[in-house]
């Protein structure tokens, strides 16, 4: 009888142990992720481009000799140099422009109202040459930040006013006397001083270049002086 009770208790314990082991196996099965029944590959979530840092920009070094070629000047190589204009250069610009404007106006009057064909031809040449020189000088001064006055010296303007009242042989004579040889000697002296003592290299070069034209004008004016007239 006692033996039967012991056997029954052993069966109960064995049955209980089996239940416990089965429950533990179920718990481990819950921890394993289920297989992918469809076989569809897992797609990663899309990346937001805004969150990805941009690579640093690539810096290209300048060509040899290019660095600093126009740095701080704002001008292309070979062009006029920018910068403050010295007093001597400002004086040259003002006087040269005043003289050039007077030559253009006087030559226009002589070419239109004169009588001597040689004087008229001379006047036409001066009008063209001085107009070109005036335009170049104004362009140079403007590139350097200077506003050029387009007025003529009052004393010279008085001579122009008198010239305008004349015609024929009278205007030929007055034109050569006031805007011929003597006027060009004074202008040549002005340009020689600028070429020698000027501070701005562009204005110095302009003065040197224009001197050749002015000297040719002087030679022509001397040839046109009336016979017996002293060189002025």
Short description:
The chain has 232 residues and is an all-alpha fold. Helices cover 64% and strands 0% of the residues.
Secondary structure: elements and pairs:
Blueprint: H1 2-31, H2 87-113, H3 117-143, H4 154-164, H5 168-179, H6 181-197, H7 201-224
Tally the beta strands: 0
Q: Mind describing the biggest β-sheet? A: none
Please, how many helices?
7
Query: How helix-rich are the residues, as a percent range?
Result: 55-70%
pLDDT < 50 stretches = 59-78, 227-232
Q: How would the global form be characterised?
A: rod-shaped
- The chain-level mean pLDDT equals 79
- What is the straight-line distance between the termini? 167 Å
What is the rounded Rg?
50 Å
Characteristic terms for this protein:
disordered C terminus; 232 residues; single chain; 7 helices; mainly alpha
What features would you describe in this structure?
The protein is an all-alpha fold and 232 residues long. It contains seven helices and no strands. It has helices at residues 2-31, 87-113, 117-143, 154-164, 168-179, 181-197, 201-224. The protein starts with a helix and ends in an 8-residue tail after the last helix. Residues 59-78 and 227-232 have low confidence and may be disordered.
